[in-house]
Specification:
With 351 residues, the protein is of the alpha/beta class. It has helices at 31-39, 65-71, 90-97, 108-114, 116-124, 154-166, 174-180, 228-234, 252-261, 273-282; strands at 8-13, 16-22, 47-52, 75-80, 101-104, 128-136, 140-142, 169-173, 195-199, 218-222, 239-242, 245-246, 249-250, 266-269, 287-293, 302-303, 319-327, 330-337. The relative contact order is 0.13.
């Protein structure tokens, strides 16, 4: 869990699993150490399968690579190198220099997707941004009267809760807040409280909004010229952050950079059509998750994405690596925004 990557380790000897582990932040021990402790003396001469390069530096715990050497591991299969400059390549070098055979690339893409948020933040120092929408088949998020509960079914909503749990922050626009009065909460206990972010240029957020009743801090971005009276009414319930405003609204790049400064490594945007369009147009979105329901609302319904000022197909926003997942009567479409920092990521080094 943020700010750490997700890491799992499996130790195999003579075709049998003798140790396995994964990193749990509170327990400190890394996945390799947990697996080694489980394997005990049987680890000597065994093989280790790992989705991320073992660390080679002191953090909250001693480095893992020397532990693997001391335990007598024979071979290590690593899916991806760690992009963290403190580690990248150094953990592998420690193993190779000690005579351990290292092979890279097994399940490389799966590993990269597992830690896409961590990799993006480490490489860009900006949060990974997911745009999530629940839509009718014709791309509407609500009826003309604003009715939107519930377009999608229970199975889709469970997946949304799981996604919320995976992200550091959940972001909505003021129109969504005023229309739906969401609590922006997650099910299940979190080590790191979910930060609830609101884009509210004029500070129209009601002091009694439900967002203040659920756990986690509330951060409201607003324009410098917002009412000081409204600011005073909200100051004791939320962190207020003025940001530059342009013709399209609050400056997304300023918002994203300020979130990074606050230690936010990933953001899930659950805005309305205007927020979705402005986020996509600004280029801050790395990935989309669109939940479609088998219903049609017609042109009078509220569009899921507002105007993008696209005048030709060459200007359209394209997606890579599309994945479709059925969820009962609904289905989820996921993909990375083509040209985003994620799709431009450098290829991993081969051993």
């Amino acid at each position: 869990m943020s700010p750490n990557p997700m890491v799992g380790a499996v130790i195999v000897r003579d075709g049998r699993i003798i140790g396995e582990g994964y990193h749990v932040f509170e327990r400190k021990d890394h996945a390799e150490v947990v697996a080694l402790d489980q394997a005990g003396d049987l680890a000597r001469g065994a093989d280790l399968y790992l989705n991320l390069e073992p660390c080679s530096h002191f953090g909250r715990t001693p480095p893992c690579a020397p532990r693997l050497v001391a335990a007598g591991i024979r071979r290590v299969f690593i899916a991806t190198r760690d992009p963290n400059p403190l580690v990248s390549g150094r953990g592998i070098a420690t193993l190779v220099d000690s005579g351990i055979e290292v092979q890279e690339g097994l399940c490389r893409e799966e590993s990269a997707l597992l830690n896409e948020k961590f990799f993006h933040f480490i490489q860009t120092r900006r949060p990974f941004v997911l745009l999530k929408l629940a839509l009718s088949l014709d791309g509407r998020i609500a009826t003309a009267a604003g009715e939107s509960r519930w377009i999608t079914g229970e199975a889709a909503r469970r997946v949304v809760q799981r996604l919320r749990y995976e992200y550091d922050a959940l972001l909505v626009g003021i129109n969504t807040l005023l229309q739906d009065d969401p609590s922006l909460e997650t099910r299940g206990a979190r080590r790191k409280p979910l930060t609830k972010v609101i884009l509210d240029s004029e500070l129209r957020t009601p002091p009694r909004a439900r967002v203040f009743l659920s756990p986690g801090p509330v951060l409201i971005f607003h324009s410098p010229g917002a009412s000081s009276h409204r600011a005073e009414a909200l100051r004791h319930q939320a962190f207020l952050q003025p940001v530059t405003r342009n013709i399209a609204g609050l400056d997304w790049n300023c918002v994203i950079n300020l979130l990074a400064e606050k230690g936010i490594t990933s953001v899930m945007v659950e805005g309305g059509g205007q927020i979705a369009a402005s986020a996509l147009s600004s280029g801050v979105v790395q990935k989309v998750a669109f939940f479609y329901a088998p219903t049609i609302l017609g042109s009078e319904g509220l569009p899921g994405i507002g105007s993008l000022n696209v005048s030709s197909l060459s200007e359209s926003i394209r997606l890579d690596g599309l994945k479709r997942t059925p969820l009962g009567p609904d289905f989820l479409v996921e993909g990375h925004v083509k040209g985003s920092a994620w799709t431009k990521r450098p290829a991993r080094s081969q051993a």
